[in-house]
Amino acid sequence: MIELSPIDISGHTFLAVTVKLPKTTLLSISNNKGYIMCGALDVKFLNDKLADRKIIAARAVGVKTIDQLLNAPLESVTYEAEKLGINKGIIGKDALLKMI
Fold it and tell me: Total domain count for the chain?
């Protein structure tokens, strides 16, 4: 099952996506600039193989809900996210606000 829902963070709208798969759930929150995602995101792949795309993204591990993703510290971030001040350890919602 796939759930899509808009979420408001400090007056800015983002799209939350939950994909329920057998034995796992994929989570992401995005806007037109970038996204944060659950542990399924391969940041190393984005940095190494897709660097030319300049993807702004970050990953939080151990999250099982959108609320947890918003409040979890980020475990890894892309080089392009770092350029916006999105660093490992900040919480998801703070990273999203830097993507405005």
Answer: 1
* 44, burial (CB in 10 Å: exposed 0-12, middle 13-18, buried 19+): exposed
Q: What CATH number has the domain bearing residue 67?
A: 3.30.1980.10
What average pLDDT does the segment 82-90 reach? 98
* Two tokens, residue 43: 């940041």
Query: Which residues constitute the domain of residue 16?
Result: 2-97
Angle at 81 between CA 78 and CA 86, to 5 degrees: 115
Report yes or no on whether pTM surpasses 0.70.
Answer: yes
H/E stretch holding 36 reads strand 34-37
pLDDT confidence band for 64 (50 / 70 / 90)? very high
User: Amino acid identity of 24?
Assistant: T
Strand bridging mode 56-59 / 34-37: parallel
Residues with Cβ < 8 Å from 60, sequence gap 6 or more?
36, 37, 38, 39, 68, 69, 72, 73, 74, 75, 92
